[in-house]
Amino acid sequence: MLRDHAKTGPAGDLTSPAGTGVSKDVGNRAQRTRAAKRTERQPFLARLRRDWQLLLMALPAIGLLIVFHYVPLLGNVIAFQDYSPYVGIADSPWVGFSNFQWLMFDESFWDATLNTLAITTFQLVFYFPVPILLAVLLDSVVRPRLRLFIQGIVYMPHFFSWVLVVTLFQQMFGGAGLLSQTLRDHGYRGIDIMTNPDTFLVLVTAETIWKDAGWGTIIFLAALAAINQNLYEAAAVDGANRWRRMWHITLPGLRPVVVLLLILRLGEALNVGFEQFFLQRDAVGRDAAEVLDTFVYWRTLLTGEWSYGAAAGLVKGLVGLILILMANKVAHRFGEQGIYKRS
Amino acid sequence: MTTLPPWAERPSRAGLFLKGLVLTLIVAGVLFPIYMVVLTSLSTQETVSQAGGLVTVPGELSFAAYEELFAGGVVTRSVLVSLGVTVVGTAISLVVTVLAAYGLSRPGSLLHRPMLFLVLLTFLFGPGLIPNYLLVSSLGLIDSYWSLILPGAVTAFNLVVMRAFFMNIPEEVSDSARIDGASEFRILRTIVLPMSKGVTAVIGLFYAVGYWNSFFNAVLYLNDNAKWPLQVVLRQYVLQGQALVVGQSSNSTIAGQALPPSLAIQMAIVVVALLPVLFVYPFVQRHFTKGVIIGAIKG
């Protein structure tokens, strides 16, 4: 995602002497000439006079991001305090790392961590391949109208809220849902999948697949569309059957995207999503459904242990950041772009 | 009929059948729950109890559930709240995002790099739940609808996608206007935006869906349940099955009685939550691949 930024980097480098700022990028001619033109060294005021409108345009968004993304980062200092909302950040006493020390000995924190990792691992194995398979299947539908129709249908659940998805699942598989209803009609006992902690992993993965697997195919479909069709023809001439063509052409064509997404997923290992678990925590029970995000929520807003919750959130954020940076290192090792380019 | 690619031999019958079956099952898996929910919401009380729950075969149809829901009261109000937040929020988000995407789309412009860096850095880490809450509360936004809009008003991802799209528009087009003395705002409005209708529609949909679906922020920031958006109502009355007070204005304590949640009414709430997405989606869907993938992959 940041590739573009990195690519235009040398051209936009304001510190380089005049003339050396010409982009090394040979791919895009329009971009190169544009960049070269823009980097001619001009005094600050001249550039301000030229670009003030652009600056003004960017300002509202930058302002919003600073206020709602960067300013709250400072709020993390309460993790090192014994914060009380009545006293405020300025006057709350500092307690050093004691909140973190408590956290290390808190079993429920580790339970939440383990749950989070279990869910991530399970989804990596059982959710991750689904969009790839679905994309290959969709790509094999040659009639364009039919394919667009199916794509339209499978993308749709991505736009439903988690409340809606959980509700639909409850109506299908809950104690009073369609599955139980049908079972009872045929003389069996009804089952309630929605409240069973033992099958919770399967349940959340199924929900995720229903909601997002279709949407996840978009990027793979784009990668498939980019494969040179002549390769298929050549392979067919060489006598490769349908399966060998998939093995030797389709799957290698998907490899870069798969590797990239896999790495990104690893960087997001601690982010399993909030609402899905928040919504089902009561029904399934804390033991199975508590993840790090919900842990922070319940520990703070309901019991008033602000500093403690903030400490847990900070640990999660830092570990997440480290994971992303590590994942990106791995991406470079694989020769992929990663989320930002090596500088 | 079907135009097969030149290298493909005729597919085997069994394979074709299997593929069709799998695809049909997938499509049905998405559509069936929706079909059933809609059908149940339109059924009479008798049909529902006869079916012993959700209705799969159409029986007698009625709009009673919807009439009850929209007679005023909790659901009506929450729908209005959700609509209002969605419209205002989407408008703000789109304007701010489009402006910034254009403002940052010209490499070499003043402060372009540090600002872009600021945007991109938000991908790497979030401030966390508690600090966010502290900020919103210290800004005095608790129990205000702005708490649902402002914190997520700009999404870095949408901004980057949009910017990537703008950067693909050849500079020569806008340069000629610039020579004629057009301001940047004018260029954006009369040249760039008309060329980017698809991507704007898609980004607009992303924002709108986000606002329409906003649930967790509402739980966090709105204590006053008179201000609940629809998703919170959906959770309360459908997912958790609490008794629903319908058909009267909420501030009077005596008027109306709490109804036990009937399945038809519950499903009607689900449909109301579903409907706007189903309605807007087909118009925007065809731009997905063109607008977003191009932006996302290039960016």
Automatic annotation (TrEMBL), chain A:
Q: Name one GO cellular component term.
A: plasma membrane
Q: Which residues form the ABC transmembrane type-1 domain?
A: 113-327
- What top-level branch of life does the organism fall under? Bacteria
Where is it mostly found? membrane
Q: Where is this region: Disordered?
A: 1-38
Kindly give the InterPro entries that the UniProt entry links to this protein: MetI-like (IPR000515), MetI-like_sf (IPR035906), UgpAE/MalFG_permease (IPR050809)
Which keywords are on file for this protein?
Cell membrane, Membrane, Transmembrane, Transmembrane helix, Transport
Transmembrane segments in this chain: where?
Answer: 54-71, 117-138, 159-179, 213-232, 253-274, 306-327
UniProt-annotated location(s) = Cell membrane
Q: Kindly give the membrane topology term recorded for this protein.
A: Multi-pass membrane protein
**A GO BP annotation:** transmembrane transport
Record Pfam families: BPD_transp_1
Q: Which family does it belong to?
A: Belongs to the binding-protein-dependent transport system permease family.
Could you tell me what this protein is called? Putative aldouronate transport system permease protein
Q: Lineage from the top down? A: Bacteria, Bacillati, Actinomycetota, Actinomycetes, Streptosporangiales
Automatic annotation (TrEMBL), chain B:
Chain ranges passing through the membrane: 16-38, 79-104, 116-136, 148-166, 187-212, 263-284
Q: What are the entry keywords? A: Cell membrane, Membrane, Transmembrane, Transmembrane helix, Transport
Q: Which CDD domains match?
A: TM_PBP2
What's one Pfam family here? Answer: BPD_transp_1
Q: Which Gene3D superfamilies match?
A: MetI-like
Q: Report how it sits in the membrane.
A: Multi-pass membrane protein
Example GO biological process: transmembrane transport
The places in or outside the cell where this protein is found are: Cell membrane
Domain ABC transmembrane type-1: where? 79-280
| Domain of life, per lineage | Bacteria
What Gene Ontology terms describe where this protein resides (cellular component)? plasma membrane
What family name appears in the similarity comment? Belongs to the binding-protein-dependent transport system permease family.
Q: What's this protein's name?
A: Putative aldouronate transport system permease protein
